[in-house]
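Subject: Sanity check before I submit

Could someone independently write out the structure tokens for this chain? I want to compare against mine line by line before I put it in a report. The sequence has 351 residues.
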Amino acid sequence: MVFSKVLIDWYLKNKRDLPWRETRDPYHIWLSEIMLQQTRIEQGLPYYLRFINAFPSVFDLAQAPQEKVLKLWQGLGYYSRARNLHESAKYVAEDLNGVFPSSYKELKKLKGVGGYTAAAIASICYNEPVAVVDGNVYRVLSRFFDVETPINSTAGIKEFKALASELLDEKDPSSFNQALMEFGALQCKPRNPICESCPLSSGCLALQKNKIKDLPVKLKKAKVKKRYFNYLVVYSEENKTLLQQRTGKGIWNGLYEFPLIETEKPISEGAFPSEEKINEILGSQELSLQLHNQKPVVHKLSHQHIYTHFWWVKAERIGEEGIPVKNVKDYPVPVLIANFLEETALETYSL
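---
Independent answer below. Compare away.
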């Protein structure tokens, strides 16, 4: 059995019809690869189509305000991808006259482009013989060759990269890389892989040893941190509210949110943090406070779980930084806030 030939034959018969497979334009391929990091195709596809519609070229993306980019990205998560995407677009448009780097080595210099993404773009757009290794590739290779080295270890990353490079069809790296990833997504799935019709089953060591469910091996993640957020949904008689932009290196940098008070543990309606903290945000004035949700909304990220309460805060006045409630929908916000806005229909909420 020639591994690459079997895989490419399977791919040509079974590949999904996806818009970025209709072109070798590096802008389209780069955009799709960045969006599909940590994201399923079913979730990422509508975002890809919206981005291409809003920004048909790298120049359009480069010239867009960051807030517009983040707003279109809203709900896709891992927002550093969007910020890096925007920065790289500006670099390609302004410094490279809109021409993308044409080699793996040069592509890796783009912000937000790591080894996997650079390999994907280089092989698909320029047919450069460099292997890709993503979650699907780890799964296929670990099962077929019965590799127990943890895929998220230094040794595992090195071993699987070498194995993928050894198997690579150097005459057609574009088809081989896409075939290997697609095979992991459709045939050699994480759960319930379709082994009975698998064209590689005769040589699959995990199938022979009844180890399909045991592979790939992954080291346990670090303990998830718990955080407790209290959002102040401030409103005044003139139908204004407050939003603040997150800055720094933490989560959601560049997105907007209601004024936030983070506490070390959950708090009840009768035990809200001292007025001093609220006065730092709203100044000294008479306020009425009401808890919106008794049960916290739990928002799970890969490295932290956020337990959130929303508090309605009626204020006598909001300063010049106040914005009309009807305009809140125009700001890029974390999905946690977006869900709250949709649930409460804030624009029509009775204040």
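---
OP: Matches mine. For the report I'm noting this point. The first strand starts at residue 225 and ends at 235.
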